[in-house]
Amino acid sequence: MWRALKGVLLFLIVLVCGFGIYVYLHKEPDRPLADLTERWAQPPSTFIELAGMLVHLRDEGPRNDKAPIILIHGTSASLHTWDGWAQVLSQDRRVIRFDLPAFGLTGPEPNNNYTIERYAEFVVTVMDHLGVDNAILAGNSLGGYIAWSTAVLHPSRVHQLVLVDASGYPYESESVPIAFKISQHPIASVLLKDFIPKALVENSVKNVYGNPDLVSQELVERYYQLSLREGNRSALSERFKQTKPGALAASIPDIKVPTLILWGAKDKLIPLKQGERFNQEILGSQLIVFDGLGHVPHEEDPQATVDAVLSFLD
């Protein structure tokens, strides 16, 4: 009996030590903004001083557009997720996109405020800075949550909505990226603060794609490097604590602007029934489902999804 117990204890000690060594070998310290800008802030990127932050932003297309299109990315993404859409839309429309507080090159919000109300206020602050009175807001996941919340809290500033696998209602996921699980766990997020092997990032990105084979190493590298921006990992944990689905959801039926809802049928993070609920509660909205795509259909198949947007705008 004692020999068996000693064997189990020895196994556990080896296991813990092995895991500790693995974590140590994959520790990656935060990187300062200056180390990341050369690669990830190429023209037309600019930085604007706003609300105590240096906000990474791209503003493309004709400036005489009366209702510019603002593209809002999701959790752990960046303005680069919209590259495919921006290339097409900016030919005829003014297209504005930026890294949200807590993500990309913008980094943490100085007051550590990541409530949905603060994010909606941030969008309006960017609009004010750029002299935009009224805009079409398009958002994916958290960005969709921010887009429709802005329409609820600041209705005079939103002309139309495009919701792409948007968050907002409470939901149960079929599968959650492992990086999100670690960030949301109160103990793991502290113990594994600097632990971020590239394989973990790759696994998380593939988790939100309908076809994981489309995830390139260049794409993984972008998500990986931008997650290392100084302060982003701590901010991500706070984002999950503060921006819970459900806030303002009772006001969704009050949205009156024309709304297009795009959804990937293979979304394992936010299931399609959430898109159907948006479609039911936003009067006159249109729902388009893409059978082979996942949680980020605009990134996975930019052409098919932006074609739906062009039809909606026309």
Automatic annotation (TrEMBL):
Lineage summary: Bacteria, Pseudomonadati, Pseudomonadota, Gammaproteobacteria, Alteromonadales
Transmembrane residue ranges: 7-25
Protein name according to UniProt: Alpha/beta hydrolase
Keywords (A to Z) from UniProt: Hydrolase, Membrane, Transmembrane, Transmembrane helix
Source organism of the structure: Brumicola blandensis
InterPro entries: AB_hydrolase_1, AB_hydrolase_fold, Epox_hydrolase-like
GO MF, one annotated term: hydrolase activity
Residue span, AB hydrolase-1 domain: 68-302
